[in-house]
Amino acid sequence: NNVLAKFNLLPDGTNPLLCCSGEEICKLVDEINHQRFAMLLDTAHLKVSAASLGLDLAEEVDKVKQSVKAIHHSDNNGLVDNNQTISNDYWFADYMPEYTNATHVLEVRNISLSQIKQQTDLLKSFMNTHKPVF
Predict the structure, then answer these.
(1) What pLDDT score does 128 carry?
(2) How confident is the chain (134 residues) per 10-residue block, as mean pLDDT?
């Protein structure tokens, strides 16, 4: 899923990028229609794109959930994707138990080995302690 920040919108408000919404992603997956074609969901991209397009995050996750085979995890302020660390209030935490079979990738910048360990432990805890929202 591509990231669409508000500054990327065309002057008329049109989205010039491909696969920023669940609808576009589903259309592409349906069109390709191959068992080996799947989605890497970037949670930070989705947070920014949903905010820029005025979309509901829960609805967007629900639209693409069947196609997701891998997930990039990082967070941001919803305006730009700057690969910040996740925290206890990570917006995607409640969805984690639904993705136990997915490949999970921590995609954060400029952190130490001990912070990487803390981040991966936090991701693991989300798998076990949050209730699915689907």
Answers:
(1) 84
(2) 96 95 97 96 98 97 97 98 97 95 96 96 87 48
- Inter-residue contact 90 to 130 (CB < 8 Å): no
Residue 86: C-alpha distances to residues 17, 29, 89 (Å): 26, 29, 8
Written as six digits, the tokens of 20 are 């920023």
**Among candidate residues 62, 50, 56, 66, the one with its CA nearest the CA of residue 15:** 50
At 35, the amino acid letter reads Q
pLDDT of residue 131: 55
| Secondary structure of 10-29 in HEC code, one letter for each residue | CCCCCCCCCCCCHHHHHHHH
Length of the chain: 134
Task: Report which of 60, 29, 45, 37 is spatially closest to residue 133, judged by C-alpha positions.
Answer: 60
Give the predicted TM-score (pTM) of the model. 0.93
Question: What are the start-end ranges of the H helices in the chain?
Answer: 22-32, 43-53, 57-64, 113-129
- Strand runs (DSSP E) across the chain, as ranges? 39-42, 68-73, 103-106
